[in-house]
Amino acid sequence: MDGVEEDAQLIRELVRYSGKTSAEVARAAKLASSTINRHFNGSASTRLSLSTIEKLRAAFPNFPGWSGVGESRSSFNHDRPAPIGDRSDTIELEQVDLRYGMGGTYADGPVEVERRAFSREWLRSITSAAPGNLFWAIGDGDSMEPTIRSGEVILIDRSQDSPRLDDGIWAVTHGDIGMIKRLRHLPDGTVELHSDNHLVRPQTAVDGEMQIVGRVIAVVRKL
What we know:
Blueprint: H1 3-18, H2 22-28, H3 33-40, H4 50-59, E1 90-94, E2 105-106, E3 115-119, H5 120-126, E4 134-138, E5 153-157, E6 169-174, E7 177-185, E8 191-194, E9 203-205, E10 210-220
Antiparallel strand pairs: 1-3, 2-7, 4-5, 5-10, 6-7, 6-10, 7-8, 8-9
């Protein structure tokens, strides 16, 4: 049994143990439903990341299947950057597990996980978040222009997953669609998903339809 199959078996056992659906397990761990569904239905092509394992373990600490899980996977360390030649000021961050559409991109297909090197000093200048909570993605579409252009690298902080104010830009899943949007909370409990492109109309998400993946904290672009 290879690593992907082991992860699929782990997810199925966790779902059975919890008595929940795979989507409910993902929601309890504050993960995108596609992250869990791909392993549950056997369509995943990459292993669960260490951060995903940690979120699931925190949500279901009494699950007996955790023994030995994640020990062979590398973790980020504040004091030691990932080795990349002799560049001591760099650290590698994982790609978030889908390509976020700034208009909307299906988030339920398997993708290849990549790693990208960032300057440790630059990261510390914009965030105090642990590197293990930081991910990068590629924006796709023009609905967030001029703030974010299609094809630009987006840094996401997954430790920020509970927006309290109508401020900032967030990576979310709305159903099985991944999006980069501004959020507006309405008095009736629904949330409007707004674009910076004034030609794109806002969408509305009712309770349970939208999941926060993290806050967009930086955009890396070429001049």
